């Protein structure tokens, strides 16, 4: 539900910022706040999509986020950069926002939000796999082992038993799992796309332009699929929080962490956010937290950390 690590890393123009040893007091507060916000995005998606529907929820999310980010980008003077790279930036919004946001908004209606957040944590798995297949990134035996471990965790989570959720009947829960995995794959493709085509584009220009691209992609489907009954104020507030807090503010925090602590620390937010999502789902939606779910989540996260080189990497 966010810029992928490679997307952010591709946009950072000063490597020294990422390589410096930062003080934890600088990056830890925004790190935790970002995990809180991204974890809450699954709850807000459920509250919004249950009345708006998946596509209108995603559409409103990116439209409101674009309206929030555009003035900030203009004040930062990054419009020329967006104008120069508008084609790849707008396209990145389709694969990094429009598609995954719609898929996750559909999924959380048919499965527990906590489980969706755990499956979202495997997005770096797909990122490593796509980078290997598309960009020819070097992949070691340890990273291959991480991929196998991570996807084994996904299979165990999906096949153990049908996820219990309001409205999940028959195969709908498994379709929801497939939607989560397709969304994560879309994030992985977006990461490699950014690494190839968006290197050097300022982060705020990338974030704003991608939201504009996603808005253009989802505008007509949002209008066509708009609910016949006006959603409640609670659903409107949930979508507003999803757009402004979990997307716009989260983008700003994420790039701040990239600049102060580096991409490897920033990617770790992906592993902390499910903790908050599980808690929110349990507190506000009475979703169960099972030992099997936690165990599979640990397997997925462990495999992801291996496949992305966050653990097991030789240090100079």
From TrEMBL:
This is DMT family transporter. It is a multi-pass membrane protein. GO terms for cellular component: membrane. Residues 1-20 form the signal peptide. Keywords: Membrane, Signal, Transmembrane, Transmembrane helix. It is found in: Membrane. The keyword Plastid does not apply. It comes from the Bacteria. It comes from Comamonas piscis.
């Amino acid at each position: 539900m966010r810029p992928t690590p490679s997307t952010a890393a591709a946009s950072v123009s000063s490597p020294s910022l990422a390589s410096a040893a930062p003080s934890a007091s600088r990056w830890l507060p925004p790190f935790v706040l970002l995990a809180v916000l991204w974890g809450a995005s699954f709850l807000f998606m459920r509250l919004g999509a249950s009345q708006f529907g998946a596509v209108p929820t995603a559409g409103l999310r990116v439209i409101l986020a674009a309206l929030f980010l555009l003035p900030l980008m203009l004040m930062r003077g990054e419009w020329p950069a967006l104008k120069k790279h508008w084609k790849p930036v707008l396209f990145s919004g389709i694969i990094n926002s429009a598609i995954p946001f719609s898929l996750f908004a559909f999924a959380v209606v048919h499965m527990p939000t906590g489980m969706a957040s755990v499956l979202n944590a495997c997005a770096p798995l797909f990122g490593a796999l796509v980078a290997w297949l598309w960009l020819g990134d070097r992949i070691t035996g340890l990273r291959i082992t991480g991929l196998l471990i991570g996807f084994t965790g996904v299979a165990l989570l999906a096949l153990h038993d049908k996820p219990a959720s309001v409205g999940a009947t028959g195969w709908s829960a498994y379709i929801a799992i497939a939607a989560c995995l397709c969304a994560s794959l879309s994030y992985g493709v977006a990461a490699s796309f950014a690494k190839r085509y968006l290197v050097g584009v300022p982060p705020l220009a990338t974030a704003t332009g991608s939201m504009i691209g996603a808005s253009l992609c989802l505008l007509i489907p949002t209008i066509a699929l708009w609910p016949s009954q006006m959603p409640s104020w609670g659903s409107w507030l949930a979508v507003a929080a999803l757009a402004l807090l979990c997307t716009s503010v989260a983008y700003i925090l994420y790039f701040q962490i990239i600049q102060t602590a580096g991409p490897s620390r920033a990617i770790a937010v992906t592993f902390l956010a499910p903790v908050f999502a599980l808690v929110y789902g349990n507190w506000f939606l009475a979703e169960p937290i099972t030992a099997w779910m936690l165990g599979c989540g640990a397997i997925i996260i462990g495999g992801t950390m291996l496949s992305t080189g966050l653990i097991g990497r030789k240090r100079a």
